Automatic annotation (TrEMBL):
EC number of the protein: 1.14.11.-
Listed cofactors: Fe(2+)
Organism encoding this protein: Lysobacter brunescens
Keywords, comma-separated and alphabetical: Antibiotic biosynthesis, Dioxygenase, Oxidoreductase
InterPro entries: AlphaKG_dependent_hydroxylases, TauD-like_sf, TauD/TfdA-like
Top EC class for this record: oxidoreductase
Protein's UniProt name: TauD/TfdA family dioxygenase
Length: 340
């Protein structure tokens, strides 16, 4: 159950922060996300963001997410322009964790999972050796019901995780085992966006990922990654991994049982272990999921809304929904973890 989480910042501090921002738009919110609403001027969002990059970054570093309302950014093309106004270069989506559709130039659909499914809270690509620093979302089609993009502040999540669990992950890190090409998830061609095995192998070697080719054109990878991360600008320490999402207990019990019988634990499409290869207890990832649920904040999407998210500071997810829904996504500012 998603709940409203008050910011650590007092309302008067929010007002003071808003007063220091540029004029010609309106500011509001004492809860996530920080809202910037179009005022009476006819300024376009890409023009405004381009002029005020430093202030947008300051808001992102303080709140973790900024929601722009009233600017009419309701297409992949318009999102591309706004994202490029904030960052001069957008990222492709390689080493994919979930299926997406390319909607425009480096703009993608949000995860293409069934509308009945919950997508748990996660940092984009925290299972990889590199990840985007900033995410951009725009609402093109609003669901009839549900379809929220909940947010959680990982500066608070990491404080809520029991010290014993936290230290165990910090000491051991996380190992992700993935099997591409089983017919029940993505194959390696979709995940790495290439038909070339040598290109995939070069990428995996550069990222210190162990791999082996199995019969049936299946690719198995093992990668040890971080459990926490340090924000490169604010120095905030955050919980930063996909353990609770990739762990096999995240599946329905019957699906998990079927896949384990069909492919074995190691042969499942994806799974997460401690970095030494030992199993992560179901109870541990259940606690982490529960903490994320307790800290999740949701807001109502409106057509044309744009959401900027600091991918270090906040996790995001998706609620089930009814009716058509389309959220476009772009990413920028690749960060590489050289300590793996």
């Amino acid at each position: 159950m998603e709940s409203i989480l008050e910011n650590d910042v007092e309302p008067q501090s929010v007002a003071a922060f808003s007063a220091s921002m540029p004029e010609d738009v309106q500011y509001e919110s004492s809860v996530l996300p920080f809202i910037i609403r179009r005022g009476s001027s006819a300024v376009s969002l890409d023009e405004w963001v381009s002029r005020n990059r430093a202030d947008v970054d300051r808001a992102l570093h303080r709140y973790g997410a900024v929601l722009f309302k009233g600017f009419g950014i309701d297409s992949a093309e318009r999102l591309n322009a706004v994202a490029l106004a904030h960052s001069d270069e957008l990222l492709d989506y390689i080493e994919r964790g979930a299926p997406r559709i390319r909607l425009g130039d480096k703009v993608y659909s949000s995860t293409e999972y069934a509308k009945e499914e919950v997508i748990p809270m996660h940092h984009e690509m925290s299972y990889s050796h590199h990840w985007p620093t900033t995410l951009y979302f725009c609402s093109e089609i609003v669901a009839e019901e549900g379809g929220y993009t909940p947010l959680a502040d990982d500066r608070k999540v990491i404080r809520a995780i029991p010290d014993e669990i936290k230290q165990r992950f910090i000491d051991k890190k996380v190992m992700y085992v993935r099997n591409y090409g089983l017919g029940v998830d993505m194959d390696w061609r979709e995940a790495f966006q290439t038909d070339s095995k040598p290109v995939v192998e070069e990428y995996l070697a550069a990222s210190k990922t162990q791999f082996e080719w199995l019969p049936g054109d299946v690719l198995r990878t093992r990668a040890v990654r971080q459990a926490i991360a340090v924000h490169p600008v604010t120095n905030d320490i955050v919980w930063f991994n996909h353990a609770h999402l990739f762990h096999s207990s995240n599946m329905p019990a019957d699906v998990r049982e079927f896949l384990a019988e069909e492919f074995t634990e190691e042969g499942m499409p994806r799974n997460a272990y401690y970095g030494d290869g030992s199993p992560i207890e179901d109870s541990v990832v259940a606690i982490i999921r529960s903490i994320y649920d307790q800290h999740a904040v949701r807001f109502e999407w409106e057509k044309g809304d744009v959401l900027f998210v600091d991918n270090f500071l906040l996790t995001h997810g998706r609620s089930p929904f009814k009716g058509p829904r389309r959220v476009c996504v772009a990413m920028s500012k690749l960060y590489t973890n050289h300590d793996i």
